[in-house]
Amino acid sequence: RRWLPLTFVTSWPGILIQLLLIPTLVFALMKAHLVPSQFQKV
């Protein structure tokens, strides 16, 4: 019964890193024109 709260506590750092790192990385790649932008302004 103690493993369930422990899994949430140990998984939060990874979740937060992904939520912060992935959008930043994608934005930087799009700004450098290394990845095509899917949401271009018309």
UniProtKB/TrEMBL annotation:
Which keywords does this Swiss-Prot/TrEMBL entry list?
Answer: Membrane, Transmembrane, Transmembrane helix
Membrane spanning residue stretches: 12-30
Q: What is this protein called?
A: Uncharacterized protein
Q: Which organism is it from?
A: gut metagenome
